[in-house]
């Protein structure tokens, strides 16, 4: 049996395989990934089990595993009863956000243009020793 020496334990660096060997496999993987991305979404034909709507921003599953729209599911979680059909709206509401005033400040308020007159209103009470 040969005794291992430091020189035997050190491995010689192997030359990396040429990039051309790896390129076809990378291309194939990218093509397969693109094919998976372009697959039909799973909720194309989904219908809410409560209000029978077909459009929602997010599909969820209720405690029984049935597919529900976002509004019905959140209503049930909050109120512990099914969402009435009278609350159903045909179109999804968009948020009405205020437009930005100043693009350099995210809140729209510039601290250089506003003056704050804040005066402390601390009153000092003397302790009553004898009541």
UniProtKB/TrEMBL annotation:
Protein name, UniProt field: GATA-type domain-containing protein
Domain GATA-type: from-to ranges: 48-95
Keywords: Metal-binding, Nucleus, Transcription, Transcription regulation, Zinc, Zinc-finger
Molecular function terms from GO: DNA-binding transcription factor activity, RNA polymerase II-specific; RNA polymerase II cis-regulatory region sequence-specific DNA binding; zinc ion binding
Originating organism: Angiostrongylus costaricensis (Nematode worm)
Ranges annotated as biased composition (Polar residues): 104-113
GO annotation terms (biological process): cell fate commitment; negative regulation of transcription by RNA polymerase II; positive regulation of transcription by RNA polymerase II
Cellular localization per UniProt: Nucleus
Record region (Disordered): 1-25, 93-113
Gene Ontology, cellular component aspect: nucleus
InterPro entries (alphabetical): Transcription_factor_GATA, Znf_GATA, Znf_NHR/GATA
């Amino acid at each position: 049996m040969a005794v291992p020496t430091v020189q035997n334990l050190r491995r010689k660096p192997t030359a990396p395989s040429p990039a051309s060997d790896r390129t076809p496999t990378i291309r194939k993987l990218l093509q397969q990934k693109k094919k998976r991305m372009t697959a039909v979404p799973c909720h194309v034909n989904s219908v809410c089990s409560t209000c029978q709507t077909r459009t929602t921003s997010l599909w969820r599953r209720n405690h029984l595993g049935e597919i529900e729209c976002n509004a019905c599911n959140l209503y049930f979680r909050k109120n512990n009863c099914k969402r009435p059909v009278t609350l159903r709206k045909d179109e999804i509401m968009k948020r009405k956000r205020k437009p930005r005033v100043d693009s350099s400040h995210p809140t729209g308020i510039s601290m250089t243009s506003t003056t704050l007159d804040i005066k402390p209103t601390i009153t000092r009470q003397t302790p009553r020793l004898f009541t």
